[in-house]
Amino acid sequence: MIKTRAQQAISDYVGFKREDDAWLVPQPDVSQSPPISNPVNILLDDVEKELLALLLQRPDDERRATKVEYALSTATRDLSRALGTENCEELDSLEFYPTLGAKLDFHDELIKFSYERQIVVDPGNVPYYLESLQGIAEGRKSEDLQTLVAIEASSGKVSAGDVRKAYKLLDLDFGSPYLDDDLIIGSFQSRATDAPRQEPELRRALQIIGQDRSSQKMQSIASRSGFSAFIMWLFEAQSLPVI
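The structure corresponding to this sequence follows.
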């Protein structure tokens, strides 16, 4: 129900029409396929993307309450196709520079400095900074940066790409707001039971996800093995004391 002037202004902007005591919804051309050209379709698409982008900035508990699953996708591929630069490897890494607060003409030492400062001031997003460092290193084919990536990986750090692969290996949706520790652990236990030869790989995936979510519970399960891990998880899930 529209009650305030602000709500009415937004409703008018996106195309709602008032008729007596009712509001008629906008009428987009649903038969049109991308790329869209209908003005109403373009407006509603822009509004939807803006609202979902704002939604992603809210805390996890608020996003779960909306029951809306959405993940922003990069426009790099579309832009490269439009500019005819699809086969330019260094341009493929352009999206990683802003993440580190760096520019394309930065020397490798400045890239290293940018990365090191980011992980100090924002340790919660290390996987994204490491992924950006890796992307820049590959785009430049820089041995110095690739060496730094290898050193960081050997110290236990994981990139955002590693996290996404871990979710995929456990057959989980990386962008889902509904995942909790027990659901992820349950998926791990199920897949490890069905494919015991893959257990080490699955256990590593659980370790990576647990590290990314700062979940001691998942990391603890990942460090155990076989039946003992399942029993520990079962007791923890039931909130019962382990004898």
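Strands lie at 17-19, 22-24.
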